[in-house]
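call fold(seq) -> tokens
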Amino acid sequence: MQKRRRLSVIVRGGAALTLSLGVRPASAIDAPDDRDQAKPCRPTVTCTADVVSPGELQIEAGAAYAQGDALREWTGPFLFRMGIAGWLEAELGSNGYTLIRSPPRASYLDNLVAGPKVHFTDQGSIVPSLSLSAEVGVPTFAAAGYSRNEDLFFVGYASKDLGPLHVDWNVALTIWRLNDEPRAQGYTSLVLSTALPKNFGVEVEGYIFSAAGSAASRDGGVRAALTYAPRPWIIVDAGGDAGFYPSIRAYTVFAGVTVIPVAFWRPAK
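ret:
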């Protein structure tokens, strides 16, 4: 899930905001180590309520192929997440380069989506971890078959550990085409994940999107993924998704990686 500034701007702005909040960097740019724990949103629709630690840049990227009765589509989604404070991160992402092979054929760089994610509380014995994001999507370059519209995205996040299971739940509202007959679409998604031996993990998810007229079709499915973390700061994933509405999208297969390549600063203890 899931704004229109380049990463360098976000980094500079994030550093300035951090200083204004009184969070002083304790060191200069640092390579990742075992103190850095990746908190991926991919490969599921659902994203965790946890935010990236202050100073860390987390990059998520992958490739996905979706097929339905009248759909043949490749996408290259990516997401940059920059930790600003213990309660705040900045996000910049997109479905990425999109290649539609079913008629009418099209290829384009999909909308960029950016905005803040605010973390309200860590999980306790009963209360889950809770966050909220508000982001805006803006079009990229004109291309045949690509609708250049502005969108708004609001997502609520809840995460909780229940014994060996980790649960993430999202509820969201999207306002498509702000500049041309806006249409609303809601969705909810729930993912269960658990650790396996040898740094492997497994995730199972269910999700459903409402229809939004000509702006977005209904969708839904059950997704499963296998993950592997050779180090705490890098996680690779692969899996598949069976759609609820085969005439729209029968299945999706995907693979990708989440990595923290750098810590721009580390908060003073």
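The radius of gyration is 18 Å.
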